[in-house]
């Protein structure tokens, strides 16, 4: 092996700066560029990634010697470990847009990446809306991140991403200005890379909440050793100063319709109205089965007028013991209803949902005008469902269920030795992972705990009591939730009301509990009555809006003592209060123009993060598990 190759193999970062470099390259001085290229091709694979760049530098001149080219690319600063082989690399891409239909632009960019055949998106984050940084006079951005697998080198990947931006019409007028699409490489394996065009890790990523927050969804604390950082990304995120306005998580429902949003002004619970076109559903079977369009249209209009913002159309009963009907029969039931719904002028701002566990039915319903797929099996009853969801690119609801409607009430199906909340969280996370692997975007997923499906009535009650804990299950944090308790059997068991359609009062209480737990959507039969319940429950228990607190406040809270009034006063000063706090039985309370409360939650201060929440004049500091 030539000495210069051996030197490069041992320490490529210092190769250009050593005396051996010049000695080793001496045989190539003054030779044609083809000789230089041949030398590059013989380099150790760790360094071949520079071949295309070297070609650009050396073109047209044999005077550009190999060592000069290597120096120009500052290999002493590019501690780069890419091997130009068939190896698949792991990278993370930032996604952004603030022009036009921002969500659609991001989703189109994802499609373009995968259409190259060289970039496979393995997971995506949630989408977050934020005010612009640096150049403030522009519209808000929607940002996210995706994890990819690719055989491309960093420079090759950069080239592909820039081609996509150009294809989608991006024109860069000013640095950090408005853009219809923005694709940036954040991380690439465990690599630190630097040249004139690209820096990895991205040089601004640790100062941007709109980058770190979605990235933290993809990279957990225990995976930090895979990346070149001294601290975890979560630690960097917590050190950022609080933004003027918190980031807002978005879940799109339908084109041109308002998304589910964590913004304070958008935190009213949405009502999903049940519309079954079946003869055998447990409470309303036969009500609209073969009854003609006039009654169906009248009911649709009434439910919209009563306050429903989502209409869930189903043609397959999922009650315990229900007999499955054919795909053809289900299509014959639901497609006319979907088309009718889309023809009603008052329904232009209503989300149409298809309640099915068959991929074919879902696809045909979406083609007919539905927006959302509501699958009680989360893809377990039809192997084509998750790929169909991914192909259609629409928003989906994944519900927790075990077995089938015919088997879900078997004893073994209702056994949860690890606890109902832990098990439902773990099993739902598994379905989320399966959906992501199939190509469903995380920002398109809604979750449902599956009240009444493979659960005893005590399980149902516990899930309602602890819904907020389930929403904080690791890996599911921040995702939107739907809960359906309407007229279900456990309500009848508790109240003694045998007729399902008479369980209105019990349903009202169960819905209130779900809203207190923080759910985003409730699925109901009796829209007129439940709309009033939702309004009252929303007023009593406004949705939580979490924002990061400065580190010094976090430190104070984590170390606070219920007897330390000095600490209380210091914390009050930091929060901008004009009066000192008063301690009262543990939680910290003060009455001013607004009421502030500190209430510790969770099990371990060391393992929890403190967040602030402001709702209806109440400021909470609570650990989010």
Automatic annotation (TrEMBL):
Alphabetical UniProt keywords: ATP-binding, Folate biosynthesis, Kinase, Magnesium, Metal-binding, Multifunctional enzyme, Nucleotide-binding, Transferase
Cofactor requirements of the protein: Mg(2+)
Function of the molecule: Catalyzes three sequential steps of tetrahydrofolate biosynthesis.
NCBIfam families: DHPS, folK
Pathway, per record: Cofactor biosynthesis; tetrahydrofolate biosynthesis; 2-amino-4-hydroxy-6-hydroxymethyl-7,8-dihydropteridine diphosphate from 7,8-dihydroneopterin triphosphate: step 3/4; Cofactor biosynthesis; tetrahydrofolate biosynthesis; 2-amino-4-hydroxy-6-hydroxymethyl-7,8-dihydropteridine diphosphate from 7,8-dihydroneopterin triphosphate: step 4/4; Cofactor biosynthesis; tetrahydrofolate biosynthesis; 7,8-dihydrofolate from 2-amino-4-hydroxy-6-hydroxymethyl-7,8-dihydropteridine diphosphate and 4-aminobenzoate: step 1/2
InterPro entries: DHP_synth-like, DHP_synth_dom, Dihydropteroate_synth-like_sf, Hppk, Hppk_sf, Pterin-binding_dom
Pfam families, per the entry: HPPK, Pterin_bind
EC code(s) of this entry: 2.5.1.15, 2.7.6.3, 4.1.2.25
Recorded GO CC terms: mitochondrial envelope
Bilayer-spanning residue ranges: none
Gene Ontology MF, one: dihydroneopterin aldolase activity
Record family assignment: In the N-terminal section; belongs to the DHNA family.
Biological processes, Gene Ontology terms: folic acid biosynthetic process; tetrahydrofolate biosynthetic process
Domain Pterin-binding stretches: 269-535
Name the UniProt record assigns to this protein: Folic acid synthesis protein FOL1
Reactions this protein catalyses: (7,8-dihydropterin-6-yl)methyl diphosphate + 4-aminobenzoate = 7,8-dihydropteroate + diphosphate; 6-hydroxymethyl-7,8-dihydropterin + ATP = (7,8-dihydropterin-6-yl)methyl diphosphate + AMP + H(+); 7,8-dihydroneopterin = 6-hydroxymethyl-7,8-dihydropterin + glycolaldehyde
């Amino acid at each position: 092996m030539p000495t210069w190759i051996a030197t490069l193999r041992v320490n490529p970062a210092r190769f250009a700066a050593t005396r051996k470099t010049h000695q080793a390259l001496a045989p190539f001085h003054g030779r044609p560029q083809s000789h230089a290229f041949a030398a590059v091709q013989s380099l150790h694979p760790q360094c071949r990634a520079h071949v295309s760049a070297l070609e650009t530098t050396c073109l047209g001149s044999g005077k550009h010697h190999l060592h000069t080219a290597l120096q120009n690319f500052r290999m002493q600063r590019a501690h780069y470990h890419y091997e130009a082989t068939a190896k698949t690399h792991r990278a993370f891409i930032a996604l952004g847009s603030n022009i036009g239909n921002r969500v659609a632009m991001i989703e189109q960019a994802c499609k373009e990446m995968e259409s190259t055949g060289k970039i496979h998106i393995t997971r995506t984050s949630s989408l977050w809306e934020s005010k612009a940084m640096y150049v403030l006079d522009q519209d808000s951005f929607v940002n996210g991140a995706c994890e990819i697998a690719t055989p491309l080198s960093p420079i090759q990947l950069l080239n592909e991403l820039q081609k996509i931006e150009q294809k989608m019409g991006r024109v860069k007028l000013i640095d950090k200005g408005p853009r219809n699409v923005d694709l940036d490489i954040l991380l690439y394996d465990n690599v630190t890379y630097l040249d004139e065009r690209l820096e990895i890790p991205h040089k601004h990523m640790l100062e941007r909440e709109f980058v770190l927050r979605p990235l933290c969804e993809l990279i957990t604390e225990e995976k930090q050793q895979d990346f070149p950082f001294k601290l975890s990304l979560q630690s960097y995120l917590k050190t950022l100063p609080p933004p003027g306005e918190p980031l807002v998580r978005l879940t799109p429902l339908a084109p041109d319709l308002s998304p589910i949003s964590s913004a304070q002004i958008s935190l009213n619970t949405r009502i999903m109205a049940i519309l079954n076109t079946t003869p055998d559903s447990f409470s309303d079977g036969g009500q609209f089965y073969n009854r003609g369009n006039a009654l169906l249209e009248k009911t649709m209009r009434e439910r919209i007028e009563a306050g429903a913002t989502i209409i869930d159309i189903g043609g397959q009963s999922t009650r315990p013991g229900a007999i499955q009907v054919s795909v053809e029969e289900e299509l014959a039931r639901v497609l006319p209803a979907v088309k009718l719904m889309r023809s009603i002028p008052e329904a232009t701002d209503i989300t149409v949902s298809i309640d099915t566990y068959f991929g074919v039915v879902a696809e045909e319903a979406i083609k007919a005008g539905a927006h959302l797929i509501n699958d009680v099996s989360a893809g377990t009853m039809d192997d084509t469902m998750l790929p169909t969801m991914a192909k259609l690119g629409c928003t989906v609801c994944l519900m927790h269920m075990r077995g089938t409607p015919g088997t879900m009430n078997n004893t073994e199906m209702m056994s949860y030795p690890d606890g109902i909340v832990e098990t439902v969280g773990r099993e739902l996370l598994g379905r989320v992972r399966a959906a992501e692997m199939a190509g469903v975007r995380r920002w398109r997923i809604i979750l449902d705990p599956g009240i009444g499906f493979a659960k005893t009535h005590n399980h149902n009650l516990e899930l309602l009591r602890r819904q907020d804990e389930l929403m904080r299950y690791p890996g599911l944090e921040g995702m939107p939730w739907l809960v359906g308790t309407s007229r279900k059997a456990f309500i009848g068991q508790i109240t003694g009301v045998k007729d399902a359609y008479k369980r209105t009062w019990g349903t009202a209480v169960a819905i209130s509990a779900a809203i207190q737990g923080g759910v985003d959507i409730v699925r109901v039969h009796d829209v007129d009555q439940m709309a009033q319940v939702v309004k009252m429950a929303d007023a009593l228990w406004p949705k939580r809006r979490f924002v990061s607190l400065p580190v010094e406040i976090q430190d104070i809270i984590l170390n606070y003592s219920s007897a330390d009034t000095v600490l209380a006063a210091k914390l009050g000063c930091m929060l901008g209060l004009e009066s000192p706090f008063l301690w009262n039985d543990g939680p910290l309370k003060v009455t001013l123009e607004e009421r502030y409360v500190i209430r510790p939650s969770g099990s371990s201060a060391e393992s929890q993060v403190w967040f602030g929440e402001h709702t209806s004049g109440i400021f909470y500091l609570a650990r989010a598990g």
